[in-house]
Design goal:
Two copies of one chain form a homodimer. With about 350 residues, chain A is α/β, with parallel strands linked by helices. Chain A is about 55% helix and about 15% strand. Chain A has a six-stranded mixed beta sheet, covered by helices on one side. In chain A, strands 2-1-3-10-4 form a five-stranded mixed beta sheet, with helices on both faces. The longest helix of chain A is centred in the last third of the chain and has 36 residues, at about 255-290. Chains A and B meet through helix 1, helix 2, helix 5, helix 11 and helix 12 of A and helix 1, helix 2, helix 5, helix 11 and helix 12 of B. Chains A, B: GO terms for molecular function: metal ion binding.
Chain lengths: ~350, ~350
């Protein structure tokens, strides 16, 4: 053997060892994320973009997120199935969209007369929320994480004032999901209509009322131009979006990238709540300035009480379906009771005090 | 030259090149953090521990935080000076502790009759808060970040009920800072007493009332055993702690570690608010169960109004001191007005609705 050959072989061996060590630490991953929203959807889309940016920066490019909006994957409500099947590695959506498939997913977005965002985050992270959510998603090979909160959603835009329960009888309203069922119990005819058709439907009296989100997102759809009564919320007091991660994908990530992914999801979820507060305040100031016709209304006490009772009845039915549903409903009820007792002497007392001084 | 020597030299050269590349990406940093709190201080100390853990895990050990509690560095209120001088790389404290040194630091913790935690985070991150804060800290070679929120602090424990402004005249109360000045304006004699002596001072009538934090931290000091009246808060509606980073230390970190550090601070700050909600709710439930003597009280309207007016007067004086103080006070006032208008139709309306149904 010539010196030259020995040398090459030795150098190659050393280089290979170093490269292998480095490669292990430096292996690169790209996760494909399907979101339910269209491209550049305000606030929700800002959240996934911020999340992806944080992941890439913190991992120095070792972990990248490629976001596909609904116009790309064409299946806004197929996110659950696509992540479960591994067609996508991750999803960004809302848990209650899957209630037709897995009824217990309903409970992890927001419940009528339920917890506020802060209370609900406390339930997720320091109560039983996260464990219960994983229990529901584990059979589907997915891990679910809080994905951003809208804050309290408004009760909707009405063209006529609601003065009593009588005014709700036969009223045609766009309100989907569990809240729609509650409204149906007190006489409303709930319907669901695609967002793009909502304005025209309300303008032409195809519907009498419409619930959407809150000032920031509602303002863009223009309801304030054709409805005078904007009702305060009760049905989705803390709408939490959702990150979904395919479990096999999660397990193949090294632990530093898992923590980076988890932390980026957590902080961008919190940030969405803070951004929602900011954007809603801006939009509400604009509505007040440009549309003096708009009046804020609370539903009358008898309407709230009837909806509260209807909600209790439906929750009891939902809890009766199986053991996990029962445990979730009980956990949320007992947590809410305790946390609200404190919110009442802190947040509520303070806000009411401030409303009185001048 | 023998084959053996040639081989060794070549291998060494290759190994050195690889090692150098790896070293650049893998340089390790340890940042020393001084916190104002004693070791294992509940909630506040949990926040710095979580922060350090996240940083280490996300950086895979490339960035470590070594926390020194007050018993180690012996200078709980020297954190500003120590981080400024570079004796420590980071600090965890509260901005208003430095108001004697730099008056404008006062505004970044919480202001009487000011924003709630959610509103204040919106001001920091989507309003002018962060820019104004950096403007105040830049001349001191430090960057300041939100460091965790207690939520609304309670108005304090009183041995006698406050029925009118008359009952406040000459009342001796432990209440520090700007809120103490507001209380002084309406007739209270504010004093500051070390935490370890508070219980005895209240028991022996050296003081008539004491403000501390909220149920979770108050319960441990035992005030509920000797005072019946627990007043709702107004003076620190969103006490935000603070991370301080020495600017030179920040600048020498590679950008991925900067983002890791920033994100870990941001998420552990948010988490502290959520943990505070959880712990306060638990503690309040325990107080209610074990101390039925404790009654929640709001100050009477005339007392709130007098404190509100005194606060406005003092704020005006503070704003008059220099240009940056003026801009901060104006920014907070205008942001509060807009954000609270929205909070009133969302959070406050909802909580009041829920308080009425049964």
């Amino acid at each position: 053997m010539k010196i030259r050959s020995v040398l090459s072989a030795a150098v190659l061996a050393v280089a290979t060892t170093f490269a292998a060590t480095q490669a292990l630490a430096q292996e690169k991953f790209t996760l494909r994320l399907a979101e339910t929203w269209g491209p550049n959807f305000p606030i929700f889309g800002d959240t996934t973009k911020e999340f992806a940016k944080l992941v890439e920066e913190m991992s120095d490019g070792r972990l990248r997120i490629r976001i596909d909006s609904a116009n790309k994957h064409k299946s806004p409500f197929g996110v659950f199935d696509m992540v479960k099947a591994g067609q996508y590695d991750m999803g960004h959506s809302a848990s209650y969209y899957w209630k037709g498939k897995v009824p217990e997913t309903l409970f992890f977005t927001s419940m009528p007369f339920g917890m506020t965002a802060l209370e609900q985050y406390a339930w997720f992270y320091y109560g039983d929320g996260m464990d219960l959510m994983q229990e529901v998603y584990a059979p589907h090979n997915m891990i679910s994480f809080p994905g951003g909160n809208t804050g309290i959603q408004m009760g909707g835009w009405f063209r006529k004032e609601i003065k009593s329960l009588d005014d709700l009888q036969g009223l045609k309203m766009r309100i989907p999901g569990f809240a729609g069922e509650v409204f149906a119990e007190v006489g409303v005819s709930p319907t669901n209509i695609p967002p793009g058709e909502l304005y025209t439907a309300l303008e032409r009296n195809t519907i009498d009322a419409v619930e959407w989100v809150g000032p920031a997102l509602d303002l863009r759809l223009g309801f304030q131009q054709i409805a005078d009564y904007y009702y305060t919320g009760w049905h989705e007091p803390a709408t939490e979006l959702q990150f979904l991660v395919n479990k096999k994908v999660w397990e193949k990530l090294p632990s530093d990238l898992q923590t980076i992914l988890k932390t980026a999801m957590r902080v961008s979820a919190y940030d969405m709540l803070v951004l929602s507060q900011h954007e809603n305040a801006e939009a509400w100031a604009n509505i007040k300035k440009d549309y003096p016709n708009v009046q804020i209304k609370n539903f009358p006490s008898d309407v709230f009480q009837a909806m509260y009772d209807a909600n209790k009845k439906l929750l009891k039915e939902a809890a009766g379906k199986n053991d996990v549903a029962k445990r979730i409903v009980e956990s949320q009820e007992s947590y809410l009771e305790k946390t609200r007792a404190y919110t009442d002497i802190s947040e509520r007392a303070y806000l009411n005090t401030m409303a009185e001084v001048e």
